[in-house]
Backbone:
């Protein structure tokens, strides 16, 4: 069975560097990280995550809660989240909130109980009060995506969809023949509930 020392010799780096790559800590060049991952694959090395977690007091996992698994949008979100966490030597634990605020909150609590290093939350239904309660009650960082939570903006990642989708010169109300028409599909492309006007309000506008 291959060991961390075997990986370091094959990759031509120190054992400490292999450890930093596996733990996602310290400054390691991307080329060096790829050397380590290649050596691990060639040797069939499988790190003991439980032992590492006990030694480092970290789970090396990132939790992700989404409202639902349905739709192209969430499929791409999960794909990119998985790729990024793997690139940093972390494990992604994903669960969905079954499109209800209660289940979304339960999902966050479940990931917190599993001692994830951080939790990413995509919620369609939870109130700002409920989100703030979670932020203040769980021990690990909670990052909220696609929502603008006024009291925790430093923890939010969101996209101003209305401004991006409807630039002033690109939309017309005139009744002439359209070249492109925007159709809102909340099941596939959910919009941010906190948006002042929201995308559906202007979904009948014509692009030209």
Residues:
């Amino acid at each position: 069975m291959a060991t961390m020392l075997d990986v370091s010799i094959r990759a031509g780096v120190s054992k400490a560097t292999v450890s930093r790559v596996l733990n996602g800590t310290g400054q390691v060049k991307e080329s060096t990280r790829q050397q380590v991952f290649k050596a691990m694959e060639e040797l069939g090395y499988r790190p003991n995550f439980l032992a590492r977690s006990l030694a480092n007091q970290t789970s090396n996992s990132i939790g992700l809660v989404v409202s639902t698994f349905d739709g192209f949008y969430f499929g791409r979100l999960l794909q990119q989240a998985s790729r990024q966490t793997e690139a940093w030597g972390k494990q992604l634990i994903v669960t969905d909130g079954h499109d209800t605020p209660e289940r979304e909150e339960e999902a966050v609590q479940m990931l917190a109980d599993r001692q994830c290093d951080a939790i990413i939350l995509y919620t369609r239904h939870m109130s700002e009060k409920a989100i703030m309660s979670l932020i203040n009650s769980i021990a690990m960082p909670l990052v909220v995506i696609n929502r603008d939570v006024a009291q925790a903006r430093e923890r939010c990642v969101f996209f101003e969809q209305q401004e991006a989708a409807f630039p002033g010169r690109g939309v017309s109300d005139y009744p002439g023949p359209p070249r492109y028409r925007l159709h809102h599909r909340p099941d596939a492309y959910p919009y941010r509930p906190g948006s002042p006007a929201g995308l559906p309000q202007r979904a009948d506008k014509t692009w030209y």
About this structure: The mean pLDDT is 77.
